[in-house]
Amino acid sequence: MKRLPVIAITSGEPAGIGPDICLVLATQRPPCRAVILGDRKLLAARAARLGLALRLRAFEPAQAPAADELEVLHLPVAAPVVAGTLDPANSAYVLALLRRAVSGCSNGTFDAMVTAPVHKGVINDAGVPFTGHTEYLAALTSTPRVVMMLAGGGLRVALATTHLALVDVAGAITRESREATLRILHRALRQRFGLAEPRILVAGLNPHGGEGGHLGREEIEVISPVLDQLRQVGMRLDGPFPADTLFTPQVLARGDCVLAMYHDQGLPVLKYASFGKGVNVTLGLPIVRTSVDHGTALELAGSGRADPGSLIAAIEMAVEMVRAS
């Protein structure tokens, strides 16, 4: 029997639904040894509020839990938590969860990490510049470039740029950055997803693919030359496609993954196809990291109505990536 992968699951913003969906894992039996990183008292209180009868046990690497136990690696909150009410005082706690998960993945304690949602605004309110998990984990692991990809609904959509204002996107579309992104994406699809010859469909930046340069020249001057260059080294790349015709069944059937040029070009389609079951993956890191595809849903915290589907899908994908690596 193969050893069960040990997966660190950060419980995220304590006032949101992160603790709720993590606790549901006690009844879901994921295909791994799931270790919840969070405040044990907070988790116990939230379980009581949700009417969940479960046993929380301190994580001990050398001793697997019993079937009715949920393992917790305890990190304390800084201030009392009220479900649904953000408190900047706990922002350092949220970031500490991420740092502990990364250190555990780096030293072999964990095989992968899965993240429940955080609230970017309250972290910034605490005086910590924070644009998202993707960028923060890249900095923690000293990774110069990573690629954000979401998967679900039969689709994989990676992003050439992530959390940028729309006015800044065109300036970020350079030959160097497109080549680096495509190399990371190609390598990850082979190493983490077991695709020997991944087929990548690449979107253009402008409406109608730039209309031959009349609506923008990025396709002509940046994207197409990079695709031609990388095809010469054996990559299977198709495009650039106008985004409004790329996301059609007959075109999508020709690829294993789409590379969109910016956040809201690719993700609305992916989330329409899979919201609540989608998975966010950070490619290019030296560790495996997946995440839910939704936010903190403060209005649902402690209500018992939070859907754990995306977390379960993220855990399953992390296990698949560990197995393929």
Order of helices and strands: EHHEHEEHEHHEEHHEHEHHEHEEH
Unreliable stretches: none
What kind of sheet is the major sheet? Answer: 12 strands, mixed
Question: What is the straight-line distance between the termini?
Answer: 18 Å
User: How many domains would you count in the coordinates?
Assistant: 2
CATH architecture type of the largest domain:
3-Layer(aba) Sandwich
Instruction: Categorize the overall geometry.
Output: globular
Strand order of the largest sheet: 3-4-2-1-5-12-11-6-7-10-8-9
Average of per-residue pLDDT values = 95
Q: Got a strand count?
A: 12
Would you identify the CATH H-level superfamily of the largest domain? Answer: Isopropylmalate Dehydrogenase
CATH structural fold name of the largest domain: Isopropylmalate Dehydrogenase
Helix percent reads: 25-40%
Radius of gyration: 20 Å
SS content category: alpha/beta
Number of helical segments? 13
Strand content: 15-25%
What is the level 1 CATH name of the largest domain? Alpha Beta
Descriptive overview:
With 325 residues, the chain is α/β, with parallel strands linked by helices. It folds into two domains: 1-143 and 285-325, Isopropylmalate Dehydrogenase (3-Layer(aba) Sandwich), CATH 3.40.718.10; 146-282, Isopropylmalate Dehydrogenase (3-Layer(aba) Sandwich), CATH 3.40.718.10. The chain has 13 helices and twelve strands. The protein has helices at 18-23, 25-28, 40-50, 91-106, 120-125, 133-140, 166-172, 175-191, 218-231, 243-246, 249-252, 263-274, 309-324; strands at residues 6-10, 33-38, 55-58, 69-74, 112-115, 147-152, 155-159, 199-203, 236-241, 257-260, 279-283, 289-292. The chain has a twelve-stranded mixed sheet with strand order 3-4-2-1-5-12-11-6-7-10-8-9, sandwiched between helices. A hairpin with a 2-residue loop joins β6 (147-152) and β7. α8 (175-191) packs across α9. The radius of gyration is 20 Å and the shape is globular. 47% of the residues are buried. The mean pLDDT is 95.
